[in-house]
Amino acid sequence: DVQHRFELEFDLRAALEGDQFRLVYQPICNLEDLSVIGVEALLRWQHPTLGEIQLDEFIPLLESSDQIIEVARLVLREACTQMATWRERGSDLIVSVNVSGRQLDRDIIVDHVREALEMSALDPASLTLEITETALMRNIDATANRLRRLKALGVQIAIDDFGSGYSSLAYLQRFPVDCIKIDRVFTDAITRSPESDALIHTLVQLGKDMGLRTLAEGVET
User: Among 34, 50, 70, 160, which residue's CB has the most CB atoms within a 10 Å radius?
Assistant: First the structure.
């Protein structure tokens, strides 16, 4: 395991320059009629010898280095460009892009989002930035300030993995949030746990009461 991790870490150094990263798009559906209303951009690494490597295998390696900043910049630009192309063809979808804690720690994230929007000419309201509770809590005051600057660009802000941390309710009003994403740990258990069913009902109602869009992860069936 250690050797595999070391080799991946070494190979990551050449992945960006070697154009080995690509995006796939997971649909976001409206449960009223099952129509697709948006997509989430997910990063994949097409390794030259190992094939496709999943996000959870290499993102921690990127997070441990400054590479995450440049890779995340690429993701923003590619996702916005693709969505702008789809919208030019008549689509009304929105695109969600994950923001890492390392990105949110730096003011340059605002410049990178602005750059991606200007380069693609995408309507800012068509871009949603997904941020985990953990990332939100790293530096609350600085994070709140950066989120307000991002909101000023016209983008949407979503809290990813909502309900899995300890900060959900205490800081929900502190940040300019448009959407909450219910963590898949609750949806995975919804058919076998009355408690999960009740909790999801509560989270959905919370979103409605606060005027937020509510998404659920892990709806596989």
Answer: 160
